[in-house]
Automatic annotation (TrEMBL):
Active site: 137
Organism: Ahrensia marina
GO molecular-function terms, A-Z: metal ion binding; peptide deformylase activity
Gene: def
Catalytic activity of the protein: N-terminal N-formyl-L-methionyl-[peptide] + H2O = N-terminal L-methionyl-[peptide] + formate
Name recorded for this polypeptide: Peptide deformylase
Cofactor binding description: Binds 1 Fe(2+) ion.
Sequence positions that bind Fe cation: 94, 136, 140
């Protein structure tokens, strides 16, 4: 396993729509392991493949408490098939937008259809933090970021900040 480099805004790859994974093979399983190692190292609770530069419809999640045994989950070609009408607000952050946090309102419960690492179709009914993380990561697969759920002013402030940081990094090279 290896830790993969994270893609940070304003990199345009984060706005790409990810492609379906055609088949689950050893390459996909190794990539999932690398994604999990990257997510744990960051540290984070979710990571979409696009965040490490791969436009594949894959994401990894682990919302277990820090004191508990890790419970990694891999979702291949995830799709939200049902959302509740009840809203829930969580303070979200993102490994691709370091040190930025904001409250985002999303459906409190979702049902997600996906393929597991054995290549089997699965269905998960999620609420609480798992529902939020799944929606956040599936947004990534569709080229959306959590800041897209904020007001235009707040979103533009974040983007300007990271464009400035990006230019400063380029100037140092």
């Amino acid at each position: 396993m290896s830790i993969l480099p994270l893609v940070i805004i304003p990199d345009p790859i984060l706005r790409q729509k990810s492609k379906l994974v055609e088949r689950v093979d050893d390459d996909v399983r190794k990539f999932a392991d690398d994604m999990l190692e990257t997510m744990y190292d960051a540290p984070g609770v979710g990571l979409a493949a696009i965040q490490v530069g791969e436009a594949r419809r894959m994401l990894v999640v682990d919302v277990s408490d820090k004191d508990d045994e890790p419970k990694p989950q891999v979702f291949i070609n995830p799709t939200i098939v049902k959302s509740s009408d009840t809203p829930n607000v969580y303070e979200e952050g993102c490994l691709s937008i370091p040190d930025v946090y904001a409250e985002v309102e999303r459906p409190a419960e979702v049902t997600v259809e996906y393929i597991n690492l054995a290549g089997e179709k699965q269905l998960v009914e999620a609420d609480g933090i798992l529902a939020t993380v799944l929606q956040h990561e599936i947004d990534h697969l569709d080229g959306m970021l959590f800041i897209d759920h904020l007001s235009k002013l707040k979103r533009e402030m974040v983007i300007r900040k990271f464009k400035k940081l990006s230019k400063q990094r380029e100037a140092k090279l």
